Amino acid sequence: MSAEIETRLADLGITLPQAAAPAANYVPYVISGSMLYISGQLPMEAGKVAVTGHVGKDVDVATAQRAAELCAINILAQAKAALSGDLGRIRRLVKINGFVASVPEFVEQHLVINGASNLLANVLGEAGKHARAAVGMAALPFNAAVEIDAVIEIA
Do you know which InterPro entries this protein is assigned to (predicted)? Predict the structure, then answer.
């Protein structure tokens, strides 16, 4: 399955970046039994936060969806690091939690997080269909527009 995932990534034009180091006192992932917990990932691209500001004010939905896609790419990069490069060990993406920095009037957080959900389902296939939450936040670290964490069942 790892080759399938790598093929899907290539077909989508995605090269996974090096997994980002934590920005504070935490670890980027934890494996406990058959579960992999990925810490919140920001929309990092080329070593910096690519989408900043509040959705509904500074950021439109399409740009925020791209931020969510970047978060998903970074989740996959962390999973690859945690699994010694073998994404084929992913049995199921169990759940993602999507946090959207947004103005109080903005109520389409679910559409923003679809950017991540769609990408993860496209890359992981059936194993990428997941439960999720999509919530609005007053602010996120480094003024990021989106942050997403993940829970993954592994072999």
Answer: Endoribo_LPSP/chorism_mut-like (IPR013813), RutC-like_sf (IPR035959)
